[in-house]
Amino acid sequence: MLNRTVRALASLSLVAAAAATGSFAMVTPGAAQSEEDNVLNKLDTGWTFYGLRTPAKIVRDEGVQGGRAYKVSVSKGSNAWAVGATTPMAKPVQKGHRIAIAFWAKAGKVEGGETGRIEYFAVERNAEPRTQVVSGSADLGPEWKLIQAQAVAPQDFAPSELTVTAHLAARSQTLQLGPIAVLDLGPAK
Fold first, then answer.
1. DSSP state of 128
2. Full-prediction pTM beyond 0.85?
3. What does the pLDDT look like over 161-178, one tens digit per residue?
4. Is the per-residue pLDDT at 4 higher than 90?
5. For the chain, what is the domain count?
6. Contact by Cβ (8 Å): 98, 182
7. Residue 87, domain CATH
């Protein structure tokens, strides 16, 4: 399964996300390992998809961390959320903490020659009102891209209250989604 490699890659994902967000200046293997305590999502679960006409496939691709990704073919929906990907949270989010989401993605075939598009991705409350902790959108090309966003949590959340979601049906497209990490970067300054 794809997520067997995710645990081994956790420190690498943390290094990439933390370096990009500036949460630490110097990275050593020991420092990356201690950062694993700040991972908020369930690394052994990976992406779960809904709304697909054909099941997601696990493909080998040495261009992404771990060498494997989920490949999905999506038809444009009446709403971008008609097809999506989710992953659960494992730890609570604390009000006032800077939360970062980072995941690898790329587009394959896209109808009309457009770029691939993830219209919306977020760590959000999984019931109404759908309060967002952090969110964004991303245009994708044929090369792997580390998609990142961060924000300050507006309130406390239990892990059971939150989910990570990505809306994939903005256009007819083939996408690949790789490892994902949600990080608590500590109190906002």
1. S
2. no
3. 999 999 999 999 999 999
4. no
5. 1
6. no
7. 2.60.120.260
